[in-house]
């Protein structure tokens, strides 16, 4: 009923219908297999979560929040075990895959936007870039609007091969067409937020094909 009422006033057009001059965008999903030790850690977390949720001491009204918290912990463990337990020194399969992809991108003169929803995860990637002397820019929710503009302008002018961005803070309002590759390190709950993130580079002004 609502659709019938508003249809005469609302016209929804897709981006490729409006901007037919935009270059092609290719989406590639990479499935990363966890190591046996990572799988064991993940399974221990899962069993511990079930044990916590079956605890009768948890008030019924708070159980849904507890479920979300435990799911988030499992999601973080998939990225890097250190995000859940920093005292465990266990190599991350996802991180290793990222370094291989990045090495190939840099060899072929590509620039990349790297999105993660976890700021402490970005800190791990940031440390790797610093140690390997890979020039980069960085942006998260704590970055001021003034500094945000300076970093975006610097990247657009060639200062940095990689831009590390918090998905929530950098999903909109940025023009980063100097990059032609987008890496969504950990999938967001809402796919439309990811699409907005990709549109930081797949927009007016982009001349090269974009790989996501």
Characterization of the model:
This protein has 212 residues and is α/β, with parallel strands linked by helices. The chain contains 9 helices and 6 strands; from the N terminus they run H-H-E-H-H-H-E-H-E-H-E-H-E-H-E. The protein has helices spanning 2-6, 15-18, 36-53, 63-79, 93-107, 119-131, 145-156, 167-170, 191-198; strands at residues 25-26, 112-116, 136-139, 162-166, 181-184, 210-211. The strands form 2 sheets. It has a 4-stranded parallel sheet with strand order 3-4-2-5, sandwiched between helices. Strands 1-6 form a two-stranded parallel sheet.
| Structural classification | alpha/beta
Number of strands: 6
- Please work out how many helical segments DSSP would assign: 9
Mean pLDDT: 89
Helix content: 40-55%
- Our estimate of the beta-strand percent is 5-15%
Strand order of the largest sheet: 3-4-2-5
What order do the SSEs take from the amino end to the carboxyl end, as H and E? HHEHHHEHEHEHEHE
Could you list the spans in which at least 5 consecutive residues all have pLDDT below 50? none
Shape: globular
What Rg do the Cα atoms give? 20 Å
Distance between the termini: 38 Å
């Amino acid at each position: 009923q609502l659709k019938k009422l508003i249809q005469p006033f609302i016209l929804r057009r897709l981006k490729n219908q409006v901007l037919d001059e935009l270059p092609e965008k290719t989406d590639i999903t990479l499935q990363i297999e966890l190591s046996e030790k990572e799988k064991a850690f993940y399974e221990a977390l899962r069993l511990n979560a079930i044990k916590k949720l079956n605890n009768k001491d948890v008030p019924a009204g708070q159980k849904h929040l507890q479920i979300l918290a435990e799911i988030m912990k499992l999601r973080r463990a998939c990225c890097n075990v250190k995000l859940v337990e920093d005292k465990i020194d266990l190599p991350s399969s996802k991180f290793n895959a990222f370094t291989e992809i990045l090495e190939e991108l840099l060899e072929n003169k590509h620039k990349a936007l790297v999105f993660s929803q976890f700021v402490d995860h970005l800190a791990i990637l940031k440390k790797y870039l610093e140690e390997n002397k890979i020039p980069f820019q960085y942006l998260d929710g704590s970055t001021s609007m003034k500094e945000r503009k300076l970093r975006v302008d610097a990247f657009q002018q060639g200062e940095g091969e990689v831009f590390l961005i918090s998905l929530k803070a950098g999903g909109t309002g940025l023009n980063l067409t100097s990059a032609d590759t987008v890496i969504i390190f950990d999938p967001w709950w809402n796919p439309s937020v990811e699409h907005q993130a990709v549109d930081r580079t797949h927009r007016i002004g982009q001349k090269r094909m974009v790989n996501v």
